[in-house]
Amino acid sequence: MADKIAVISLGCSKNLVDSERLMRMFADVGYTVTDTADDDFFKGTGRRHIVVNTCGFIGDAKEESINEILSWGELRKDGGIDGLYVMGCLSQRYASQLPGEIPEVDRWYGKTDWAGLVTDLARRNPGAAPYDRLLTTPRHHAYLKIAEGCNRFCAFCAIPLITGRYKSRPVEEIVAEVRMLVSRGVKEFNVIAQDLTSYGIDLYGKQEIARLVNAIADVEGVEWIRLHYAYPNEFPLDLLDVMASRPNVCRYLDIALQHVSDNVLSNMRRHITSDETKHLLDELRRRVPGLTLRTTLMVGFPGEGEKEFEELMDFVREQRFDRMGAFAYCEEDDTYAALHYEDSISPEVKQQRLDRLMKLQEEISAELQQSKVGRVLKIVIDREEDDYYVGRSEADSPEVDPEVLVRKSRQLEKGRFYNVKITDAYPFELIGDPLEDETDN
Question: How far is CA 132 from CA 127, 128, 382, in A?
């Protein structure tokens, strides 16, 4: 029986894509691969190996990664698994410290040394295409990573220290990956990068995200394209024309703003002002009617006093973001903020501000969700549960956004699109009934 590999992926969707590529490589050299070490993983004969793909972005993510490694380390020490290997952001960043602290790990790898890991374990080179992978998401949707790294160097962020400078993938390679995935049944593509707006500068000398999205939209069988992790400074406005004109490009944009106070934005080294931020948001909404905006904000960064925090609260009240996440500032090793600022705001104050901000957003979300009652939305079905089918609209990205619970008044198929009339709304989910007229699939 073939040896088994379980690739445990932690952190963001960009990490998940890396794990899926690693799984494809292991399958190519004859391993039985899975993304979870469940009971079936431990049945039968053959050697069993665990790969933990770690996250090292913020303190909580690092703690989760360490705890995951330690739990598998205990099993490795007791002989319950035959090998334990660690890769990813945490491993890349702390390559000199971790091996001595967790000796149960057989070998440590960086963020992108997938081929090295496979070659070391299998004693042969993987032959899979560089973008080929085994999807761990439902087969009708996939994440599409178009670049690695970041050139922004925000004061709080360690990502450039981990991943290095921005590296775009060629348009032709990305489109080839899309065609391959469409042939396997994928209809929805969630385009991801640390910074979508810088796409193409390193390869083509200018921003080319609009050209790339147009090229993906041209591929027959692509039903939805959703864009994640834009940067507000130097935003490529030609992308808005693509979003407004192409029917299979979702009117959805995930753009991390972090803050709105000029003082805090300057300390964060975001290279944008409060007025410029508000002007950009006005332009986004004007040029893409019906746009769903998702953002991420931070509280407790050095320089955020009560005045700056109240300015942030007022900003959220005014903008009424469709989706919003937030987190409290956590000092990260070797970042500009860690080297130059004092983290003087207490954890208690940070948590109080975070709670207030998220409570405000929950109230806004409830009102925006309620406004959808009576509307007919195009919904993709992700899964079936006891009482409902569970799906999403174009305004709902997998895992991070609300879901739509569709009553079982008739048989629906996973991965297909249906028109659903919304009858009830809650802050983080909608409920509706399927109509008889299906959308095109």
Answer: 10, 6, 23
Q: What are 48's strand-pairing partners? A: 4
Q: What is the pLDDT of residues 370-424, one digit of tens each?
A: 999 999 999 999 999 999 999 999 999 999 999 999 999 999 999 999 999 999 9
Greatest CA separation found in the chain?
65
Going by C-alpha positions, the residue among 146, 158, 159, 162 that lies closest to residue 112 is 162
Our CA angle for 272, 318, 277, nearest 5°, is: 10
* Sheet with 4-9, side-by-side order of all strands: 32-34, 4-9, 48-54, 83-88, 107-108
CB contact at 8 A, 302 and 342 = yes
Query: How confident is the model at residue 101, as a pLDDT?
Result: 86
At 187, list the tokens.
């209809």
CB 161 within 8 A of CB 277: no
Would you call 148 helix, strand, or coil by DSSP? Answer: strand
Its pTM stands at: 0.92
β pairing state of 249-255 and 376-384:
unpaired
Three-state DSSP class for residue 257: coil
Q: Which residue has the tokens 């761990």?
A: 136
Instruction: List phi, psi (to 5°) of 365.
Output: -60, -40
The CA distance from 273 to 278, in Å, is 9
391 three-state secondary structure: strand
Q: What's the CA gap between 348 and 350, in Å, rounded?
A: 5
> What residue type is 422 in one-letter code?
I
Q: Check the CA dihedral 336-341-347-348 and report its sign.
A: negative
Residue 403: strand, helix, or coil: strand
* 349 vs 357: CA distance, rounded Å: 12
Q: How far apart are CA 48 and CA 2, in angstroms?
A: 9
In angstroms, rounded to a whole number, what is the distance separating the alpha carbons of residues 250 and 344?
A: 41
**CA–CA separation, 125 and 215 (whole Å):** 32
Q: Which two tokens stand for residue 431?
A: 């409920």
Burial 360-391 (b: 16+ CB within 10 A, else e): ebeebbeebbeebeeeebbbbbbeeeeebbbb
**pLDDT tens digits, one per residue of 313-335:** 999 999 999 999 999 999 988 99
Measured at the CA of 61, the angle between CA 59 and CA 66, to 5 degrees, comes to 95
Sequence letter at residue 314: D
Distance in angstroms (rounded) separating the CA atoms of residues 305 and 309:
6
Q: At 130, is the pLDDT very low, low, confident or very high (cuts 50, 70, 90)?
A: confident
Residue pair 300/264 in contact (Cβ under 8 Å)? The answer is no
Three-class SS state of 34: strand
